[in-house]
Amino acid sequence: MGVLDLVAAIAAAVIASSVLFLAHGRHGDDRGGPRAELVRYIGVSALSALVCAVMNALEILGGGTVAAAVGNATNVFAPAMVWALARRLNARAAIGVLSAGAAAILMLGVTFLIPLDEATLVKTAAIAAACLLAAWELRRRPLRDLAGSGVLTTTLTLFAVFNLGRLVVAAAAGMYSDAWDAVASAQLTSIVSAVVIVLMGVGTVLMGRQLDDDPAPGTRAFDRGALRREAAELLRTHGRITAVTVRLPEIDLIRRAHNADRAETMMSAIVDAAREAEPRGAAGVPARDTVILLVPGGRVGDVDDDVRRAFAARMPGIGYDDTPDLEFAHRRITDVAALSTLMEARRLRPSLREFDDA
C-alpha cells in the first residue's frame, strides 16, 4: 500500500513538472523575466519532490539510511525553493537559494547522525517552517496581487498545518500509535503530498500567465532575441547577411584571474568595437564567450581587422594592458532560422571552425 501511495506522489510530481512549462509561453531559447524565474525555481522544487518520492520508495524497498537521507533533504528543499522564488519575485534579498541549499545539506547530515524516526520529525518540522515562510512571502506585494497567489498560499499553509499536526500526534501519542496510523502515517502523508504538488502546479500556472517573460536588457536571452529581430530587418532590406562570429578564447581565464564583471566589460568592449567596425549592422552577445556581428550583404571586407583595431583601442580605457586575441568565423545567413541555429550552437561552445564558411 505504501508503494502505491508513493507511486501516486511520483505521478503528481511528474505532472506538475510538465505542466509548469505551460506557464512559460515563449518558444525557443529567449526565455527570461519573472516568468522564467518562476518556471526554473518551481521546476526545481517539483523535481526535488519527485526525487523525494523515488527515494522514499527505495527506502521502503530496502534502500536504507542513504535513501532516507536523500529523501529527507529533497523533501525539505522543495518547499524551501518556493520560499526562495517568492523572495526573488518580490525583489527581496537574494538569500533564498543559498538558505534552501543549506537546509537540505543540514537535513542530509542530520539523517545520518540521529535515528530515522527522529530524523523524520526534524524533517517534518523543517517542511512546516519552509511552507509557512513561503506562504508569508507570497502574501507580500507584488505577489499577493496576482491570481494563483491565493492557491499557493492556501496550499502551503494547509500543508504546514498538516505537518505540525504530525508533530503534535508524535509528541502526544508516539509514532507507533493508532492515532499516528490514522492521521499522520507515511502513506497518508504521501497522498497529501501528491495533492499538494498538483495544487502547487495549478497555482504556478495561474501566476505564471500573469508574469512577464521578456528577458531583461543585457542578458544573453535579450541579445539573442534582438539579433533575430535585427536579422529579419536586414534580410528584408538586403536579401542576405553575413554573421561574423567573434570569440574571446581567454574569457574563462579572465573570469578566473579577475572577476565576472571584468569579463563582462571585455565582452561589452567587443560589442562596441563590432558596432564601430560595421555601423550598418547589428551586434550582440548570444553566448557567454561569443559576439555575433551581422553584416549586410554577402561580403564582409576587412571587418575582422577593423574589429581588432577598434577592440585594441578600447583596452586602455578599461584598464587592460594587453589586447587579447580574437577568433573570427563567417557564415552566410539567408533566413532567421539559420541565425538561430548558429546561436544555439555557440551556446554549446564548439570550435568556431565548424561554422566558418570562409
Instruction: Determine the strand fraction and express it as a percent band.
Output: 5-15%
Order of helices and strands: HHHHHHHHEHHEEHEH
Total strand count, please? 4
Class by SSE composition: alpha+beta
Which outline best applies? elongated
Strand order in the sheet with the most strands: 2-3-1-4
Can you give a write-up of this model?
The protein is an alpha+beta fold and 358 residues long. 67% of the residues lie in helices and 8% in strands. It is built from 12 helices and 4 strands, in the order ααααααααβααββαβα. Strands 2-3-1-4 form a 4-stranded antiparallel sheet, with helices on both faces. A hairpin with a 2-residue loop joins strand 2 and strand 3. The longest helix has 57 residues.
List the helices and strands and how they pair.
Layout: H1 2-20, H2 33-89, H3 96-113, H4 116-138, H5 149-173, H6 178-183, H7 186-208, H8 220-238, E1 241-247, H9 251-257, H10 260-277, E2 282-287, E3 290-296, H11 303-314, E4 327-333, H12 336-347
